[in-house]
Design brief:
Erythroid Transcription Factor GATA-1, Chain A, mainly alpha, 2 helices, single chain
Length: about 60
């Protein structure tokens, strides 16, 4: 298995990475949001944005 960061051979001590440095690079990407799973909430699509108009006075 190769390191997902630099593609060198993995080290058993830092599996699946080759070194502590690559493991830290990966952690930093997760913490800064570089890795994100896009989510589409079907509930959000059904909602209408709140109206900014005031109700009509009678």
């Amino acid at each position: 298995m190769n390191c997902p960061i630099c593609k060198r051979a993995s080290d058993a001590k830092h599996q699946p990475f080759c070194s502590r440095r690559c493991a830290d690079v990966d952690l930093g990407r997760w913490l800064t949001g570089a890795y994100a799973i896009p989510v589409t909430d079907p509930e959000d699509e059904d909602r209408q944005p709140p109206s900014t108009e005031l109700p009509a006075r009678h």
